[in-house]
Amino acid sequence: MNAHTEAENYLLDFHRRIVSSTSIAFGAVPASLNGVVHASSYHALASMLPLDDNALSVVDIGCGDGHLLGLLAAQKHRGLRLIGVDMSDGELDVARAVLPADIALLRERAQDLSIATGSIDVVLSHMALMLMGDLEQVFSEIRRILRPSGLVAFIVGGKGLLEPVRHLYLNELRPILREENISLCLHNERTTSEEGWRTLLSPSFTDCRFADVDLRIDATPTEIWDSFLSTTYDVDLLSSEGQEKLRKRTMAALASHCDSNGKLRYGCGLRLVAARAR
Ligand SMILES: C[S@@+](CC[C@H](N)C(=O)[O-])C[C@H]1O[C@@H](n2cnc3c(N)ncnc32)[C@H](O)[C@@H]1O
Description:
Elements: H1 6-17, H2 21-26, E1 31-33, E2 36-38, H3 41-46, E3 56-61, H4 67-74, E4 80-86, H5 89-98, E5 104-107, E6 120-126, H6 135-145, E7 146-161, H7 165-179, H8 194-201, E8 205-219, H9 221-231, H10 233-237, H11 240-255, E9 264-277
Helix pairs in contact: 7-11, 9-11
The structure holds S-adenosylmethionine.
């Protein structure tokens, strides 16, 4: 495996300390895609696969604890060959413990895959690609392993947190990040817009499509804070004093927006991107 960047070293450390955070946060939140409500954003992504028993090789890039691979394996398509790729030993250890033994798990960087050229029909990825550096190289590798007209489909951040939580949370977070001089950037600016994704994909992919994936959940301020604390890299980067300051301010700001059950509507907008290998 090539040397890791500073951002990758941070991600490796995070995913060693806090495993399965993404599947815990997103695994049971209903997600609507093109007017259909799926059990979660993982199910929405899984719906991109053809529902037949023809031979199909599928790779999940940045597979984490293997939640998506587990869903795909449970569909019991004959002919489905599954491979997970992640650089985190912490997440892959969990994946290995829960997934069927015939799912191959590779500990490697998406920028440098060991998978044979042209051997894969579908590449999927859930909430991982926007974190990766050198995305040109990542997509060059994805194109290399895909057969011609093979499918790449991935879910990444989109519109982000919904109001009022977005405004309340970001207003409190930004000054504390500044006070603590935290500048580690964990996302690639081009991954925040359709235009950016098109630019990244266009050298090797065609038929680029985008769709919103909307998640909604009613939660108490404490539940919302707990989810920020366990899934948000920006919050994890703060000192414990910074986290406590943010917790108090966020809880106070959210409390005034709760309904009579002490809950408020919480959710976020993700983006599904799909394209075909040229
Ligand atoms: C937010 S987690 C999502 C995990 C999983 N896809 C899910 O949704 O449950 C991002 C994952 O991407 C992995 N990752 C980030 N950059 C990577 C890279 N360059 N190569 C391989 N894996 C990477 C991390 O180790 C982490 O497991």
